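Purpose: get a first structural picture of the assembly so the mutagenesis plan has something to point at.
Setup: three entries, given in the order below. No constraints added.
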Amino acid sequence: MPELPEVETVRIGLSRLLPGKKIVHITCNWPKSFPNTPKDVQTRLLGAQIVDVARRAKLLLIELNTKHSLIIHLKMTGQLVFRSKQQHFGAGHPSHSLVGELPDRSTRVTFTFADGSKLFFNDQRKFGWIRLLPTAEVSQIDFFQKVGPEPLAADFTAKDFALRIRRRLKSGIKAVLLDQSVIAGVGNIYADESLFGAKIHPETRVINLSDNQLKKLYESLKKVLLLSIEKGGSTDKNYVDAEGRRGSYLSFANVFRRQGKPCPRCGTTIIKIKVAGRGTHICPHCQVSFQKTTFTAHSVAMTPADTIKQ
DNA sequence: CACTTGACCTGTCCGC
DNA sequence: TGCGGACAGGTCAAGT
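Result (structure tokens, whole complex):
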């Protein structure tokens, strides 16, 4: 489930390994994973050298010296694993790698470089994709036209965050966090973790969130994203970094995949519910709805849905 | 407009 | 043991 921290971890690894590499060969056994025409590949990609590796939202951008870029979305089960010539022949794969000999059953695309090293695009569920585009056109694709700001950008303030979240006043806050056109890069794991950190129930309507709650959520979101990047992201089943290593954030997670276990703050058993069509993990004591926290004990507890109906 | 559902896919797990 | 079905969740498109 690569989200911002996982894609950023891959970017950090690839930006150390790939610049200067010259592409000499490409194979693809699932055309939907890399739908460019063979002619495009032949003229725009073979012989190209990698200049830089960048990230925007959950997308990786590999810039080439041919005024073209590769855009890669890992979706749920995508992996980009680099192997040097030594790792590939003779010495075997590195011992720290979670991934065995490559290519394997899930390998969709293989890039071979002039020095004999390789980059493998593995994707068990085939939802991910790679596309080749003129670099000048990258910012024009639909996704980049509508995607929201980077939550970790230095100039992205709590005020910016609140303004963007409040464009969806009637929606539940988790659905809004997951909406890539509001804020870039947040998926199921960091939505749950940031809401827990801010003590907000994921079904709370945005209209019922105070300035202070949104400020807390902004801080909580940035905190979990930064911690996860520090820990190399979250590996549930599939995710690995550019060298095939797992991320360890999930052992620091407070609620995600911890249903049945005690809340680290209050000890109440964490539960899993369904919100916005996603599995959602909450502490039912810490994360109560806005009304329940602001009305006195003897007043009638109203759910956010009740408020909307009135 | 906001929300839900289905599509894209495969591997895993659960119950029978 | 095998089989059907639910589930996992990023994004888009279509339907309510």
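The first helix of chain A runs from residue 4 to 17.
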